[in-house]
Specification:
By secondary structure, the chain is an all-alpha fold. It has one domain: Orthogonal Bundle (Lysozyme). Helices cover 59% and strands 2% of the residues. A two-stranded antiparallel sheet has the order 1-2. Helix 2 packs antiparallel against helix 3 and helix 3 crosses helix 8. The chain starts with a helix and ends with a helix.
């Protein structure tokens, strides 16, 4: 009887999570633009000092949150599915940078410089210790717990995606960020307009 009740509760929770998630997945996960954004994200995170495992952990969370669609959103928006509180700050950063809130590089800058400060509040890691993690699965868990704090974390997905990006990109030679381009992709509005 108890085991049956746990299964029902798990099923109900899964249905509630599915019903409340923002739908950002239609056709973005494997398009050429999404792949470009994934490469851009990897390069940005490595240039920001992340280990390959830490970069993969963040990317696993981004895929779960938005499927790399920078315009994804309802009540929460962007790659990281940020709240209204963070959205106000992101828009200020975008204005300072001369970009729009949905600019990929602007969102990544906000995520690594602003949101990353929250890691220490919710975990035993600082941004610096997080950046040195050696396990993509561990990095995915720490980023979710410290930054995303999803209502329905679906951690197995985040870990699976983190491992996928680690395997795909870990041996990539990342070009140094010139500030104008990351991995040969213009990081201002033209990339976003393609979506």
């Amino acid at each position: 009887m108890v085991q049956f009740s746990k299964k029902i509760i798990s099923l109900v929770m899964a249905l509630v999570c599915a019903a409340t998630m923002t739908v950002c997945f239609a056709g973005t996960a494997e398009t050429a633009s999404a792949k470009d954004i994934q490469t851009q994200t990897w390069d940005y995170l490595i240039n920001a000092g992340c280990s390959p495992a830490a970069a993969a952990g963040i990317m696993g969370n981004i895929e779960q949150e938005s499927s790399f669609n920078p315009r994804c959103g309802g009540s929460h928006k962007g790659l990281f599915q940020i709240s209204r509180y963070h959205m106000r700050k992101l828009k200020k950063l975008a204005k300072r940078n001369g970009t729009k809130w949905y600019d990929v590089e602007t969102q990544l800058e906000y995520g690594t410089k602003q949101m990353s400060a929250e890691i220490k509040t919710y975990t035993r890691y600082t941004w610096n210790s997080f950046r040195n993690l050696k396990s993509p699965a561990k990095a995915a868990k720490v980023w979710e717990k410290g930054v995303e704090r999803a209502g329905c974390p679906m951690m197995a997905n985040r870990i699976k995606y983190a491992k996928k990006y680690y395997k795909r990109f870990k041996d990539r030679e990342v070009p140094k960020d010139s500030g104008e381009q990351v991995s040969g992709i213009k990081t201002k509005r033209p990339l976003i307009r393609e979506l």
